[in-house]
Amino acid sequence: MTDIEVVEGDDYQAAKPSRPLEITFAVVALAVSAGYLALGTQIPLRREAAAGQIDARFWPMLLGVSAIVVAVLLLVVALTRPAPTREDVERIQPGGILRIVATLVIVIAFVGLWSLGSIILFGYRIELFPIAAGLLMIALMLLYGHRRWLSLVIYSVSVTAFVYVVFGMLLRIPL
């Protein structure tokens, strides 16, 4: 049996090439990148950096500008070249759209909980970011099929602690 016969007998169906999809993706990437850059310029600074120093806005602005450049390049490629083949991309699987919607709901809930900042409970001020970030990690890992509870806890706590220590404590970016 040759390779051609194996491929023909396979039930694999690749996604079809789609120029409108490529253009839509590039436009959405450009809009998200522009929004990210706009938000990056509004990061509150506790102290302005001296000339030649890096402050909390530097990396978000650098990433935002880089993302805009890449999105513009994607848009130019999508408009000037034919749509690439998508033989390596499978068609949408059953439950795939439901997972995307559930992911969006989880992320929106995370942003909503995080935007509260902190709460006062029994006379103690409780920062919500570590709690929200840990719950976000656990919820997304469960949604995408991870089931071992020990690694769920260890991974969620370690990633949340890392982000909180680096950004909240060392860089002093308000979370």
Molecular structure report:
By secondary structure, the protein is mainly alpha-helical. The protein has helices at 3-9, 19-40, 58-80, 96-115, 129-143, 149-170; strands spanning 118-121, 124-127. The chain has a two-stranded antiparallel ribbon with strand order 1-2. A hairpin with a 2-residue loop joins strand 1 and strand 2. The longest helix has 23 residues, at 58-80. It is flat, with a radius of gyration of 22 Å. It starts with a helix and ends in a 5-residue tail after the last helix.
List keywords for this structure.
175 residues, mainly alpha, two-stranded antiparallel ribbon, 6 helices, disordered N terminus
Q: Short description, anyone?
A:
By secondary structure, the protein is mainly alpha-helical. It has helices spanning 3-9, 19-40, 58-80, 96-115, 129-143, 149-170, and strands at residues 118-121, 124-127.
- Tell me, rounded to a whole number, the average pLDDT: 84
CA distance, first residue to last residue: 60 Å
List segments where confidence is low: pLDDT < 50 over at least 5 consecutive residues: 1-7
Structural class from helices and strands?
A: mainly alpha
How many beta-strand elements?
2
Overall body shape = flat
Classify the beta-strand content into a percent band: under 5%
